[in-house]
Amino acid sequence: MIEAGSTAFRRASLAFAFGSFMIFANVYVTQPLLPMLAEAFQVSALQAGWSFTITTLMLGLSLLCYGPLSDALGRRWIMLASMAGATLCTLLLSQTSDYHSLLLLRALQGVCLGGLPAIAIAYMGDEFSKRALTVAVGLYISGNTLGGIGGRLVGGFVGDWLGWSDAFLVMSLISLVCLALFVWLLPPSRNFQPQALRPRLMLQDLIGHLRNPLLLAAYLIGGFNFFIFINQYSYATFLLAGEPYQLPASLLGMLFLTYLSGTLGSALSGRLVGHLPPPLVMAGGVLILMAGSLVTLIPAVWAIILGFLINAFGFFIAHSSASNWVSHNAQRARASASSLYLLFYYLGASSGGFYLDPFWQWAGWQGVVIGSWLVLSLTLGLSLWLYLSRRDAAVTA
Questions:
Q1: Is residue 193 included in any domain, yes or no?
Q2: Is the dihedral of CA 351, 355, 361, 363 positive or negative?
Q3: Do 114 and 228 have their domain in common?
Q4: CA 253 to each of CA 86, 90, 231, 248, 330: distance values in angstroms, whole numbers, following the listed order
Q5: What does pTM read for this prediction?
């Protein structure tokens, strides 16, 4: 087993940090480019947003397939093949001149991008000791956050400087470097034990999770919170690119630095759960997200940035608590329970734009905030329902 502090541990941890950076940079590279894509291809804000949502949709659906495949066929080579496919898609995106082709490539890219997130933790579980696993997962999640921010900064700055197609070209070069480092650094699997594919058992586990109200509520909380949170950023790019702000793509990309407050929120969530029931921590995160959305209504760039800093802080408090709730309340097959949470999470990301677009067309950014509050009121109610359900169960016991 790989122990914390060893050379193999450092190499593997760096490999997964580079790999997760590459995955999430590619997922989010289009967000600051949305106004530019809408103008280049003469499409609406909603249609431009498809370049992001189709990727998250296909990524989420692919998570349910990669895990069982890696259990039967191996971890390392599937991760490498999927990352290579994603890199090739990014290169092809830089050469496309048709919006339908762009969407098709982004969908295929989403399928490829799901390989590493679905398998990384399973690989670590096979190869790392328990102590090393805890540290490595923290570094891996840091790579996720930095990748999301880095991809948006690359999209914004390179898009503003050279155009949207060159933003994809630069991202493909960055992806190639990350892939090469991943191949070089990641140790071969030594403790992997292949298992037979059992689709029927997998389906039974998934149905069982969906029938568990304590899990289903957490799935809906995580999915609907992300449904609002991530798609607010998409419409904020159109808000800030228009009158009276007229910010260029490079500055729109910097809006996503507000994600950094989410790192603090994730860390604080673990401490709060030690003192408060997890559903109340989820509810608190949703309330903070609702408050941040209100702050963005102040018609000033500083207020919008502050609002998104508050939003990211609250969202990641709720997200971390909901994710941990799932792992602690799954009665069996915890890996598939967590995969199902991620499926709801990414389905929320891919569908929220369709929900918010009528509000945007109706009343602009004020409409987006009204639509956001309607959904967040639902997730707040679900969080409080979880708290009351567990409290009543404890009293009965």
A1: no
A2: negative
A3: no
A4: 22, 19, 15, 9, 38
A5: 0.84
In whole angstroms, give the CA distance from residue 64 to residue 43. 32
Residue 43 region by backbone torsions, left for phi larger than 0, else alpha for psi between -120 and 50, else beta: beta
Domain count, the chain: 2
pLDDT at 132 over 70: yes
SS3 119: helix
Output the CA–CA distances (angstroms, integers) from residue 121 to 58, 75, 139, 343, 345, in the order listed: 20, 10, 12, 16, 18
CATH number for position 98:
1.20.1250.20
For residue 7 the two structure tokens come to: 């050379």
Could you tell me if 202 and 160 lie in one domain?
no
* Domain contains 325: yes
Q: Does residue 178 sit in the same domain as residue 247?
A: no
Return phi, psi of residue 277, to 5°: -60, 135
Q: Could you tell me if residue 192 is inside a domain? A: no
- Give 325's contacts (C-beta < 8 A, 6+ positions apart): 214, 218, 278, 279, 282, 386
Instruction: List the domain range (segments joined by +) for residue 161.
Output: 1-185
pLDDT tens-digit map of 151-171: 999 999 999 999 999 999 999
Would you state the pLDDT for residue 395?
Answer: 47
Taking 60 as the threshold, does the pLDDT of residue 380 lie above it? yes
